[in-house]
Amino acid sequence: MKVVITGFDPFGGENINPALEAVKLLPDNISDAEVIKIEIPTVFRKSLEKINEEIEKYNPDIVISIGQAGGRFDITPERVAINLDDARIADNEGKQPIDISIYEDGEPAYFSNLPIKAMVNEIKEGGLPASVSNTAGTFVCNHVMYHLLYLVDKKYPNMKAGFIHVPYIPAQVIDKPGKPSMSIADISKGLELAIKAAIENKNDSNKLMNLLSEIPLEYIQVSNEIISYAKYSLGKRLNDNIYISLTDHISFAIERYKQGLNFKNALLWEIKRFYNHEFLIGKEALTIIKKRLDIMLSEDEAASIAMHILNGELDQEMPEIVDMIKLIEEILKVVKYHFNIEFDEESINYYRFITHLKFFTQRLSSGRYYEDNDNDLFDMIKLKYPNSYECVKRIEGFIKQKYCTQLTKEEMLYLIIHTARVVYENC
Length: 427
What we know:
alpha/beta; PTS-regulatory domain, PRD; 3 domains; six-stranded mixed β-sheet; 8 strands
């Protein structure tokens, strides 16, 4: 078996590319397979020509290209490449294509046929951080990955191919405060483990292989526009998984619409109340869909899109998002019935309470809590607001029963304060 591994030369003003340096450190044989290490230029089209030469020369069973994605914390095998060049910066020969297709006869997108989850697991078991990525960008990395999978589709059906992004190395972040990095030795070790998994998991099939190839390009473009708007509106990045999940959802929603099927979102009311910003983004998404596709989806779909936005914000699975929304509602019910009140949902204290509950449920879901730092303050607040304390004890009991989790005194302290505020305003 032959495995071709490519690494890009330095680009973007950097003096070194950890992708190439890590490739150079790879052993010549992994799991009885010959490893052929190739340097390719960070140049549109010219990189493809170099890859074509090497494939024709070696006839490899597997081709994996390695590139740098500065800012990432871990080693990330890529799931999908899209048929689009849209360069934020110029390549090493000054080329900067904007919004052009890589191949006119190619699919809108191709999925890697490598066992990417097995590769991630192998890297993690080796003691290094790794995760699946759902965007290879729109620069030369995506350009190369798409080309490889185009070749699989058109010319080499038995070849496995894909792409792996790696982080900065420490020398690159000296002038980039806060940016993560990883040593070249660790990157190379992670790549070796990924290659091992790719070789040994010959029959691992990607369940999403044909997903984007079956989705019209205009749906993908609409989804990208919605995500861009969401990022701008929220002022934060979203997990890359949203590019897959939201695109798939929009495609499914449109197909349901065309069939006259209007599904209700059971959490519409809660999403509008607890995650109004995300819901408003969902409403804007409906406007974008109407403008681009001349299809007007229902308000229920705005709520569903909002849930995907939440998923992207919190980096959690959809069932966890649903559980968080339901937990907020359950806590509000406990407070409401304990004090026999109706909330003033327009009040600032209610807004603050909901905001606290959103972060509280996120911490509960992730297993991270405020630590116990000031027992004296807790005792003082407990005495000052005895009714709110009793209410929070009921909340604690509910959470302990449902999640088998004991709340810290610090978590209870903040719940008591927020409960006292919202109750006082309603008394």
